[in-house]
Structure formats: C-alpha cells, structure tokens
Amino acid sequence: MTRWALVWGTLSTIGLIVLGVTSLDAAIQRMGVKGWQTLHNTNYVISALAIVHVFMARGNYAEQYLLTGVFVWLMAWRVLDRYRLGTDFKVLALLTTACALFTALFEAGWYSGRRNFRMWDRISADFSWARWTNIGR
C-alpha cells in the first residue's frame, strides 16, 4: 500500500509542477491556447491522484477529508456553472450542504473501514454539541 501511495504522490507532484511551470504567459504562447488548455484539463485527474495519495498514506488527518469535500464541491460547481447555475444562491446553498454531508459520511465511512469504528459512532461524534463546546479547553 505504501509503494502505491508513493507512486500516486510522485505522479501528482510532477503533474502539479508541470501545470505550474506551464502557467506562465510564455508557456501559453509557446504551446498555443488549445494545447495549453488540453494540458491544463489534466488538472482534474492530477488532483484526484493527489487525493488518492493522501488516503493511501499512513495516518488520518482532518484536512484530507476537508480537501476531498472541497474538491467534490469544486467539481460539482464546474458542472453547475456549465448549465448557468453557478451563481444561483439556492443551488449553491444546496451544493454546500450536500458536500458537507458527503464529507462527514465519507470520513465516517473511511474510519469505519480502515479503523474498524462503527460508522454511526463516528458521525455522532462529529455532530456532537459537547465536542464543539469543548474546543480550546
């Protein structure tokens, strides 16, 4: 499992470096707009590889679930924006609520599968009022 995490991490890092280097105006002129756009559309695959890498690596961190939720939100927003719904307040509120629930269920499911926690216990711990009132104490 660790080797595959390293493979996905290396591929996504190289991909992100290539995307960063080709974001300069000179690179866009040299590649042409169409070639540049084709390359930069791989951002979705590269970002997904980075997320897979994070989940395959050892340890669990709150950020990995948050970043996955943000990634899902952004991908869904791109689809909505294509249909001219990217600025509709009600649609965005629904999208945000759905992605928050997705993130919470994804975290609970991941802990359940990887750490043998009961899924409902994890969800109830996440949404426990006592947990949020004890922050910083």
Which structural class fits the helix and strand makeup? mainly alpha
Distance between the termini: 37 Å
Number of helices: 8
Main sheet characteristics: none
- Overall average residue pLDDT: 86
How does the overall form come out from the CA principal axes? flat
Beta-strand proportion? under 5%
Q: How many beta-strand runs?
A: 0
The rounded Rg comes to: 19 Å
Low-confidence stretches: none
Return the domain count: 2
Percent of residues in helices comes to over 70%
* Strand/helix succession: HHHHHHHH
Keyphrases for this structure?
mainly alpha; flat; 0% strand; 137 residues; single chain
Textual characterization of the structure:
The protein has two domains: 1-58; 59-137, no CATH class. Helix 5 (62-82) packs antiparallel against helix 6. The longest helix is centred in the C-terminal third of the chain and has 27 residues, at 89-115. The chain has 137 residues and is mainly alpha-helical. The two termini are 37 Å apart. The mean pLDDT is 86. The chain has helices spanning 2-21, 25-31, 33-40, 43-56, 62-82, 89-115, 119-126, 129-133. The protein is built from eight helices and no strands.
Give a nutshell description of this structure.
With 137 residues, this protein is an all-alpha fold. It folds into two domains: 1-58; 59-137, no CATH class.
What is the topological layout?
Elements (H helix, E strand, L loop, with lengths): L1 H20 L3 H7 L1 H8 L2 H14 L5 H21 L6 H27 L3 H8 L2 H5 L4
Helix pairs in contact: 1-4, 2-3, 4-5, 5-6, 6-7
